[in-house]
């Protein structure tokens, strides 16, 4: 069963519902971030105000400088590149023990890939797009953590993967020895298998043979590099169904199979076949299955009943 006390640590752009700190003194509403506030320990950040640009402030922009870029303030001609680089390095060093990041899209500081880049401080039109200074530093120093910008979290698959990753990584931070590693692995074995079976087998070997925590962690991060395919989750559920169906009525079996097909076709949420399956797990009274994180990888309060998405996993997960 899900650990109700667990609260991942996530760095979030302060303007996303926490403080009116945008260049124009405004605040941005994000339903996704708002929903998470009761379940996650957020560490807020506004790099531009933190380096003394003030609120409100003259906007800054990314300006191409050969193969590099600068952070410039067109109205004043001020170059704040050095201050921003120092702040990013100091902040990320002080907050290295976090599970993820939610950053403001298109921001010259926090943007991850859609920030406009100009040829000159007074250039009228952007010539390229890329990451802001803080976003770039996050991708450089914490590339394996869960990193998203607020807009992408409206997508069910992206949000589900992000939440699963931060809660699993948060749990792994508590693992200090082989005994705890084995408990972690057992609790998450179906979830890990649903992501990438080949890497799951490597994790099994490390947990069973007393491998190092560092080796396990590296493979765990690699496993969570991409979300699981829909068919992978269906495979796990089908294997459990075979294990449990001897105690299930014929009409229940038919209902489950229909719900599985509807999930495969994108006409119902994963929660439908998963909930049916979990009732059978409870009926079987098997603690080894009942406590699997596969059924509840994050708090139920973060599950949206209206989420229905197809099984297609697009190629837009990594920056």
Describe, in plain words, how this protein is organized in 3D.
This protein is an alpha/beta fold and 319 residues long. The chain has three domains: 9-154, no CATH class; 156-223, no CATH class; 236-302, no CATH class. The protein contains twelve helices and nine strands. The protein has a five-stranded mixed β-sheet with strand order 5-4-3-7-8. The protein has a four-stranded parallel β-sheet with strand order 2-1-6-9, sandwiched between helices. Helix 10 (250-264) runs antiparallel to helix 11 (271-284). The chain starts with 8 loop residues before the first strand and ends in a 29-residue tail after the last helix. Residues 312-317 have low confidence and may be disordered.
Shape annotation: elongated
**What would the average pLDDT be, to the nearest integer?**
92
Largest sheet: 5 strands, mixed
Q: How many strand elements?
A: 9
Task: Indicate the topology.
Layout: E1 9-13, H1 31-36, E2 41-45, H2 47-50, E3 61-65, E4 68-73, E5 78-79, H3 81-94, E6 100-103, E7 115-118, E8 126-130, H4 133-141, E9 146-149, H5 156-172, H6 178-195, H7 197-208, H8 213-223, H9 230-244, H10 250-264, H11 271-284, H12 287-290
Parallel strand pairs: 1-2, 1-6, 3-7, 6-9
Antiparallel strand pairs: 3-4, 4-5, 7-8
Helix pairs in contact: 3-4, 6-7, 6-9, 7-8, 9-11, 10-11
């Amino acid at each position: 069963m899900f650990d109700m006390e667990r609260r991942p640590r996530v760095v979030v752009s302060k303007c996303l519902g926490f403080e009116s700190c945008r260049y124009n003194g405004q605040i941005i509403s994000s339903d996704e971030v708002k929903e998470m506030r009761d379940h996650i320990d957020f560490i807020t950040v506004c790099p531009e105000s933190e380096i003394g640009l003030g609120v409100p402030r003259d906007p800054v922009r990314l300006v191409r400088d050969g193969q590099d870029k600068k952070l410039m303030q067109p109205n004043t001609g001020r170059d704040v590149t050095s201050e921003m680089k120092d702040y990013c390095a100091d902040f990320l060093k002080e907050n290295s023990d976090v599970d993820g990041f939610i950053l403001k899209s298109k921001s010259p500081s926090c943007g991850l890939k859609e920030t406009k880049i100009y040829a000159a401080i007074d250039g009228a039109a952007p010539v390229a797009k890329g990451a802001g200074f803080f976003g770039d530093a996050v991708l450089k120093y914490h590339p394996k953590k869960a990193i998203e910008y607020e807009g992408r979290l409206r997508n069910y698959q992206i949000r589900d993967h992000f939440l699963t990753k931060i809660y699993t990584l948060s749990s792994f931070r508590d693992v200090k020895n082989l005994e705890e590693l084995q408990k972690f692995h057992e609790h998450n074995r179906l979830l890990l298998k649903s992501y990438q079976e080949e890497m799951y087998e490597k994790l099994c070997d490390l947990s069973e043979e007393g491998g190092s925590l560092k080796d396990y962690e590296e493979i765990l991060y690699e496993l969570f590099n991409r979300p699981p395919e829909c068919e992978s989750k269906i495979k796990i559920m089908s294997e459990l169904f075979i294990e449990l169906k001897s105690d299930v009525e014929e009409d229940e079996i038919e209902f489950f199979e229909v719900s599985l097909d509807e999930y495969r076709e994108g006409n119902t949420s994963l929660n439908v076949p998963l909930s049916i399956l979990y009732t059978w797990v409870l009926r079987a009274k098997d603690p080894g299955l009942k406590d699997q994180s596969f059924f509840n990888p994050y708090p139920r309060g973060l599950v949206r009943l209206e989420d229905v998405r197809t099984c297609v996993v697009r190629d837009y997960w990594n920056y």
